Amino acid sequence: MAAVAAAAAAAQAETPPNQTVYVRNLEENVNVDKLVEALREIFSEFGTIIDIVAKKSLKRKGQAFIVYDDVDAAQTAIDEVQGFELFDKPMSLDFAKTKSDAIVKRDGTSQEFDAHKRRRLAEKERKQAAEAQEQAAAKRPAPGPVEEAPAKTLKGLKSTGVTASVVPDEYLPPNRTLFVQNLPEEYDMEVLTSMFERFEGFIEVRSVPGRNIAFVEYDGNAGAISAKENTAGTRLGDQQIKVTYQRQ
Fold first, then answer.
1. Which of 21, 42, 200, 243 has the most CB atoms around its CB within 10 Å?
2. CA 30, CA 21: separation in Å to the nearest integer?
């Protein structure tokens, strides 16, 4: 327990105080609803709780976020509960590194809340892209012995003998151009344009003659992120379109 408290104290020194407490080292095999109920019973003693976030996904298991009404309550909870055992495991507490959705929605405007969600989504997609690249790199075969053989050429280009690992479209990092696939054979360009022009920074839709794809360009990442989030999986005619970031 002392080791947990010491590690948490070191991390807390680097994170500015805010209303949200980040809880780690929770028992992963406990039902989420039961876990939230137990956390609420413990942490409600220190102030008004606005929200408790605990996820069922494998990557998010064992952690939760307690959102208080004010910073003082969050600080008191960290001081008092640090290292406290819940389901036979000592909890590790720190301030969350970013503002919670509940706080931004309460204290900010709708525009600020939308911007907050876009930044969070962009960060999530950046991490997913990095993880996908790491996994792709790990699957590459180890280099074999170097053979003294002339390099083959294809259309004037030398072959390196290395097959590049391709990151799936879904995990490409955000950029200002979207790649739209699976368009109907005869789609209405005006309908497609109206679908994407409602997002900030829209510049144009570029179709590709003879192919069921198009590119949508924005003047910055924010508009592209928002457009992708809100249009992915939309049905156009009888088909569900696929929206990803353009491969750089």
1. 21
2. 20
